[in-house]
Design brief:
The protein has nine helices and twelve strands. By secondary structure, it is of the alpha+beta class. The strands form two sheets. Strands 1, 2, 3, 4, 5, 6, 7 and 12 form an eight-stranded mixed β-sheet that branches. Bound molecules: (R)-mevalonate.
Length: about 325
């Protein structure tokens, strides 16, 4: 009997360029210290199934659950209904779904890696990216691929849809605060909303897309130097532009106001917005106490260093 296989992949934050990256800009993303672990083993039930926490579903069922993972399983397990060797897929995640922290991408990446290895086929990063994108397209509609790329590679990446990802090195370890607002949102609806903005104001949007690229290139330099103050300034510029395209919300504004003050350099939405999460750059001496002061109201608040490991095998 085939042994169980486990893989884990990190969630992500986007530091600059979300949304504009779908329309061709550069963007910067990083893996975070919150992961999804996927275990694949032979099924005892005679059918393929998937489970996470208290929720479970047959892979063959069209109940709307686990859409990304099911798309990948169906792609990889041809004729799954008649398959003589059905599988059981277990997902353990410490990334809240719908929080803008890349949980669906991490599920897609860890699922693809664990299932392909289970079937005796370790795929290259390029093939893994292409397979994991099948899952991401189920959830995102028109994904740029940045979430999948950041989850595979971990670390920090400068990403562009046409040219792919380049690793960004930092001289000093940079840490950022991450705060989940608790407001769930749908990435595909937000991406569609932004596409309508682009169609309504094409010239304005083209300039914002260029601006996102300049911010991402300048951020690459700030990260290289470990210059947290400049990183924060770029976050504030990016946030203003994300507000202009309509993806900020009162709950996001409230958190940004709450973290602004002595020792904070800047804060912004991370990911699609419409709720979700914010990131904050602050003086290293105050970052932990700032984040701890938010936990009572926002339990998913944490500090992450930007040197997290990407996809890895688990025992
Ligand atoms: C979502 O994490 C980032 C977006 O830019 C969409 C994408 O790039 O696929 C909003």
């Amino acid at each position: 009997m085939t042994a169980a296989v486990s893989a884990s992949a990190p969630g992500k934050i986007i530091l600059t360029g979300e949304h504009f990256v779908v329309h061709g800009s550069y963007a910067v993303a990083a893996g975070i210290n919150r992961r999804v672990r996927v275990t694949v083993k032979p099924s005892k039930n005679g059918f393929s199934s998937i489970a996470s926490g208290k929720d479970s579903s047959k892979v063959a069922s069209e109940d709307g659950k686990f859409r990304a993972a099911k798309t990948i399983i169906r792609k990889l397990v041809q004729d799954y209904e008649q398959n003589s060797n059905p599988i059981e897929v277990q997902i353990d995640s410490d990334i809240p779904a719908g929080s803008g922290l890349g949980s669906s991408a991490a599920v897609s990446v860890a699922c693809t890696a664990a299932i392909t290895k289970y079937f005796g086929n370790i795929v290259s990063s390029k093939d893994l990216f292409a397979l994991a994108m099948f899952g991401e397209k189920q959830v995102h509609g028109n994904p740029s691929g940045i979430d999948i790329e950041a989850s595979i590679s971990g670390g920090i990446i400068l990403f562009n849809k046409s040219t792919g990802a380049k690793t960004i090195k930092t001289q000093n370890r940079v840490s950022l605060g991450v705060i989940y607002s608790g407001e769930k949102r749908s990435t595909s609806l937000l991406v569609a909303k932004v596409a309508r903005q682009r169609d309504a104001h094409p010239n304005f949007f083209r300039n914002l897309t260029k601006s996102a690229s300049y911010q991402s290139l300048e951020l690459t330099d700030a990260l290289n130097r470990g210059d947290v103050e400049r990183i924060g300034t770029l976050f504030n510029i990016a946030q203003t532009e994300l507000e202009w395209i309509g993806v900020s919300t009162p709950s996001i504004q409230k958190i940004i106001e709450r973290v602004s003050g002595e020792g904070t350099y800047g804060a912004k939405i991370t990911g699609a917005g419409g709720g979700g999460s914010i990131i904050v750059a602050a003086k290293p001496q105050i970052l932990s106490s700032l984040i701890n002061s938010l936990i009572a109201n926002y339990p998913h608040s944490f500090v992450t260093q930007l040197n997290q490991e990407g996809l890895r095998w688990e025992p």
